[in-house]
Amino acid sequence: MNPLIVVTGGTKGIGRAIVDRFVAEGFDAVVCARSVDGLQGPGLLPFAADLSSRAGVTTLLDYIHSLNRPVDVLVNNTGVFLPGQIQDEADGTFEQLMTTNVGSAYHLTRGLVGDMVARKKGHIFMMCSTASITAYTNGGSYCISKFALLGMSRVLREELKPHGVKVTALLPGATFTASWEGTDLPEERFMKASDVADSAWAAYTLSKSAVVEEILIRPQLGDL
């Protein structure tokens, strides 16, 4: 049986690049997003769920458990960006971003990590950002959520050290995905989604005795 990876927000951008890389290496992939219409192919197990709600996370967990297969890799990639400043962003922005960007990863991890601990095997990737370490104007609640996600990654790393479960925080800078459509900047000014996917794969393939705790990746010419 092929090893199994679970990727949230896995239908496009960095998430999809990670799915494609791991499937190419022999994994089957549970791919979750709000819509998975048209997603098909060898090794792909698409599942539609809105992870901005606890109920959505629960439906995904129920599906994963129904497969009756161990999860070897979890990639908490679901996220949303809403620009604004703390002083003037719309009411509810903080709650929406924290629930989606942090809460989904928290509850999904809690639902899957017990089996990893029992097997003393597993790898959890948290899709953080350069916004996890660098505050910027107009980042508002998005920066807060990404700082929190990096904090959760570090807590998990400490908790899971004795249990053989690895935790890696990915902190990519500007990556050329659909979120940058319409930009006037040249594509070569950005990283490729495959760069992040390749980095995740490299971290996964290390020996059992080594873990990459954090991967900070920026475009060669620096932040935008």
TrEMBL record:
Ranges annotated as spanning the membrane: none
Alphabetic keyword roster: Oxidoreductase
Any matching Pfam family: adh_short
Entry's family note: Belongs to the short-chain dehydrogenases/reductases (SDR) family.
Protein name: SDR family oxidoreductase
Source species of the chain: Spirosoma liriopis
